Each structure stands twice: as C-alpha cells, then as structure tokens.
Amino acid sequence: MSPDADPRSAPTSPRPSGLWRTVAEIERHVATDGWGAPLRLFALVRTADALDRDPGLARRLPPNVLDEARADPDHLTSVEQEGVPAVADLDELLGQLAWPDGVDGAALVVERILVPPDAETEVRAVTAGDDEAGRARALAAHPLAEDVRIAVGVLRDGRHECAVRSRSKDSDGEVATGADLVPGLVGALAATLQD
C-alpha cells in the first residue's frame, strides 16, 4: 500500500459464510470424540427461522448464538440426527434420506481411508476381481494410507462447504477447508435435499 493510500479503502478478506462456520463447528465438535466414530448426520436450519417457529428456543440457545443469529440472517443451527442406521454403504444411506421443508440443509461427518491414486491402482492389480472387502483391507494396510475425517454441509440453494482433517495432522489449525474438496460426497448429500 502506498503511503498516501487511505487505509479505509484497503481490500478486506470476505467474511466467512454461515455455512462455512457451521461445517467447521460441526467438524470440531465431532473431533472431540476422537477417531473411529460412526457417521454423524445433521439437519441445518436457519436460526432466525427456527426462532420464529419456536420462540421458546431462545431460552435454550446460548446468548452468543442469539446475538450471532440477530446479526446474520444466514446463521445456521445444526441438529444432530439420532438413530442413524449403521450401513456398509454410504450411498445406500443417502439414497434413503429426504428432509422436510423446514430443513434448510444437511451436513454429515464420515471417516475414510485415503491413498494416493497410484497406490489404489497397485492394490487393484493384486486383489481378486470382486473382492471389495479384501481390497479395502489392502488399502487400509498400505503404507501411504491416511485416515481422514470429512465434514460436508450443503444448503438447498446449492451452496456447500467441506472440511477435511487428517489423523497425521490432528489439530484444528490443520483442517483443510473449501467448497470443492469432496465433490462426489457434496453431490450425494445435495440429492437428499431435492424436492
């Protein structure tokens, strides 16, 4: 910046979106339970709308959340879904989900094992054709395998955010965030919100 420039006109970084903050909060919340957790599923509702529908909710929310909701009409509240069935295939679960109109979005957190594409090709070459369980065990045992926790949030209007934490860099400051980190999972979750 030149010495004559007005500091009030300096560019500022954009304020994080309500969805970005919510996905980051959900991931941090789930991280407190450690690794090896089952899939976690959350309904996302605009806090201001929820307060309009249920004024008694104001007594159950912390004061800072009420202040944030008053200041930001896009502020979201996450509601964890209890009794999510344990399924072997995430696509199967997501294919069965549908959200009522009062839900503005959905989020999920799931743990996966990632390996570089070359390692996956190598494992596919040495495992028998349809032996998915054997392939999964071989991938998990691969020296380049990395445990990751993936959090994805999607709104009905199409906005989406992701957060990915690796076990080898298990700290809040090392969580990767971005809208398009796991597009397949974003698309599958978005499909649960289709009318």
UniProtKB/TrEMBL annotation:
InterPro entries in the record: PPA1309-like
Region spans: Disordered: 1-20
Protein name (record): PPA1309 family protein
